[in-house]
From TrEMBL:
Bilayer-spanning residue ranges: 322-347, 353-374
An example Gene Ontology biological process: sphingolipid metabolic process
Protein known as: Sphingomyelin phosphodiesterase 2
Family of the protein in this entry: Belongs to the neutral sphingomyelinase family.
Subcellular locations according to the entry: Membrane
SUPFAM superfamilies associated with the record: DNase I-like
GO cellular component assignments: membrane
Amino acid sequence: MKPNFSLRLRIFNLNCCAVWGPPSHRADRMRRLGDFLNQESFDLALLEEVWSEQDFQYLRQKLSPTYPAAHHFRSGIIGSGLCVFSKHPIQELTQHVYTLNGYPYMIHHGDWFSGKAVGLLVLHLSGMVLNAYVTHLHAEYNRRKDIYLAHRVAQAWELAQFIHHTSKKADVVLLCGDLNMHPEDLGCCLLKEWTGLRDAYLETRDFKGSEEGNTMVPKNCYVNQQELKPFPFGVRIDYMLYKAVSGFYISCKSLETTTGNDPYSGTPLSDHEALMATLFVRHSPPQQSPNSTHRPAERSPLMSVLKEAWTELGLGMAQARWWAAFATYVIGLGLLLLALLCVLAAGGGAREAAILLWTPSVGLVLWAGAFYLFHVQEVNGLYRAHAELQHVLGRAREAQDLGPEPQPALLLGQQEGDRTKEQ
């Protein structure tokens, strides 16, 4: 690797909102998105909510001269909606489907059916290894009473762990996607503190776009204005996060968002705003990483957010256990009712009524059984993340006893792979 190595990367990210139905103007937006990507010629275009295989194949064919490499990450029932288009050859591909993803009986929300996931592609660029991740986390439907908070925190932890364990051979790590979290939300802080990823909006030298970098803005005609009432300038829930390891340094020269309109035609490409960044990678790391600052473990931002996430997952487990117990009582009552109906039918006194009530009673037992099984699975999923966090916190306390000021990132083994490569 040459000492004066320098590489420019242009990255595009958009939640396409490619839903079915005439009001969305999906076909027209896909056509204009393809035209825009061809004209701009990014190194990487990472998209979310491309639900239709037909839409992906249309974009793949339209973009093939500019982006010869493409992949659609499939999962769940209707698909993860994640896809990537690359100007450079893709060396490796894999994906991870999140353990928890909402509730199947909340059909009007639909997240469970999509099989939310994170997709990974590995690129080799001039001898540098780039791990690019694209993801879409569970939506937040009610900020005041967020029944999916524990699921989204668990997803953020799973995402952080997936990045940590798959990026040890990477020189540069890039994460793009719709995290469905505000910058100060617990899951967002957990993800950034654990992985060491930096926010392009906060790091860029040159920003152009919507107020405060928001990616859902009232000016956009596809946005639900009622949902944005508490946020007059919009919300920032789509991100570009990055970091460099093993002796490389990455910086964001410029970041731009759309502002409720297509940059060319004036009509929005989606209900989300697109993110467009120019990143520079060079072979000259900074003198000191922000993660290596010396401070007591219990007062570090990392430890604070780990403890908060552990508490939130514990609350989520308690709620899931309550629902499982409730389903158990319903199953018991349903079986008791079925037994009573059998007695009545055998006695002949209320045979017709017993026969009429038999089918709904069986349905009740089956529904409660499915409800019980799902929430038991939810308990186990939350317990897994909760146990991992408890292990991390336990190791932190042990390391704290060995010295007055342990370094959180090092004592948790977060950057062991990176340090090995640098040595």
